[in-house]
Structures are given as C-alpha cells and as structure tokens.
C-alpha cells in the first residue's frame, strides 16, 4: 500500500512476500529532505495535526481553497457536520468563488447535509446551469445520487450538454430518478454517442437498467 504523510513524503508498506502471512513487514518512506522545512509542508502538517473541530466557519470556508486535498476534505466534512449552521456559507462558496475546488467541496458538503435535510438540495438545482462545466457535472452527480425530483427536467436538458462529463453524470442521475419517459432521451444520448465514448455508453446503459422500460428495450434491440 502507498499513502502520503503530512510531511510531504510517500510511505510504502511492503509485506515481504506478497499476501502470505509471514509475520514480517517493512515500511519505506520516500521523501525529499529539502522539503521538510518548506512553508507549505509545515502549514499542512500543522493544520492536519490540529484538526478542524475548533475552527470557525469563516476559517473552514477559507480552507476549502487549500492546495492540499486532505485539508480541503477535512474542512468539507467539518462544515457538513455543522449542517444548518454552515449552509449559508457553503451556498456562498458553491455559487461564487475564485477557486473552482472550493466550489466543488462546498457542493459535496451540501450534498452530505442534504442526506438528512432534503430542502438543502433544492439550492443546488440552479448550479446545473452554471457556466463552469465541472460545477454542472458535480451538481448533477450530487442531485442524481440524492434522487431529487426537482432536478429531473434540468438533468434531462443536460443530456445534451456540450461537456461529455456533464452528460455522463446527467445520464446516471436521470436513471436513478426512474422516470420511464426518460428512456427515449437516453436512447438519443446513446445514438449520438455512436459507441465512441465508453463512459457515455456505460452511463446510458446503467440508466436504461434503472429505468427498466422492458418494452422499449425489446423494441430498441432491433435498432441499427
């Protein structure tokens, strides 16, 4: 196994002879000693070591922009745990922030809160029309996973989005919502893809499985 430590080094676990239980093991650390005093490394180590429990909403929101993914994720989860107390700040970050990463982490945090507070998810529907394609994609993913009925029509429209990645998540979301009338728009997605992009083919296939319109599938089996 391989993982990165807060010191900037990579740690490698080696069990000597594969998966057999030899009772032996080694841990290697691969690192650049010159980076040990790097300001970014020291800051990241400090942030992760101190944790997020005592940090203010303002500081947690700011950390959604941090260069280190682990710090961003810790801040995201800390904000999600605060639920309604953090919702306004998360929406502010999701709707407008110079950092795309901060926007995405805010969307994911709102998705976490939405698991127990469905009303929170409604605010994300507007992001399905955002100019940033990755914001559209991740909003589609979160809302599709949540099976939010309010997102159905916007997700149908996203099946024709200019971004293949957005179409991928939109197709999965449409499938999870389970409206059989979405079968034809999914067929159109697959027809336009013409078997070129395997990810879109997979998303369309999974959507058809979930929509489960057997008559339409049997008829489409003869489609050229």
Q: What fraction, in percent, of the residue positions are helical?
A: 55-70%
Largest sheet: 3 strands, antiparallel
Largest sheet: spatial strand order: 1-2-3
Encode the helix/strand succession as letters.
EEEHHHHHHHHHHH
Instruction: Report low-confidence residues grouped into runs of 5 or more.
Output: none
Strand-residue proportion: 5-15%
Morphology: globular
- The overall average pLDDT, rounded, is 95
State the end-to-end CA separation: 47 Å
Instruction: Please tally the helical runs, counting DSSP H or I stretches of 4 or more residues.
Output: 11
Q: Structural class, please?
A: mainly alpha
Q: What is the topology?
A:
Elements: E1 2-4, E2 10-14, E3 26-30, H1 39-50, H2 57-63, H3 69-82, H4 84-95, H5 100-113, H6 133-146, H7 152-158, H8 164-177, H9 183-193, H10 198-211, H11 214-220
Antiparallel strand pairs: 1-2, 2-3
